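Hi everyone,

Forwarding the result from last night's run.
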Amino acid sequence: MFTHRLPAAFQTREAALLLAMCFVIDFGLALFQVPFAVALVQVHGWDAGSLSRVQAGLALLGGTLGALDIGAIVDRIGPRPARQALRLACTVAFGIAGSLIAAGLAAGAGSVILGLASVVPAPLYVAVLLASREGRASAVQFQVHMAAVNLGDVTGAALAGALGASTILMALTVASVFLLCARAAHAPRPGSAQ
């Protein structure tokens, strides 16, 4: 019966990590991107139209071309190695973004920082969501994963304003979150020899 298959689909360590990653990815991105976009306009003199065009171009680049690329990579090297490489790439991307902001380059390097914070993580969504499509209850699993993504986005955006922390701190916090996710995913599975 379906109601028994769905909870069973989320009982493995791998499934729990994938579900958590769906939340964490968007949580972290919103936690950084919301205050950084506001700072670009209010502090660094960007106009809203320019910001919108840059964000649209980056969404196209990461969401479309990145999705095509990661699909081919997952087919070639497998989903777990691809997700791990992407988690580490996100860690590095947010570390670089924080460093650029700390160096006082936020205004001039705003497009690069936005790219690091959106184009680099976009393929990770695809890799995580591809993994969510396994099993007999895959359509509903996919919906649960998408709900976790949306909840992460809402929570991160809500906390970003409430925390009022610097974008440097946010970038480094998000880098740390991706590093912790990479470590958790790479930890030996119970009962496996590594």
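The mean pLDDT is 82.

Cheers,
N.
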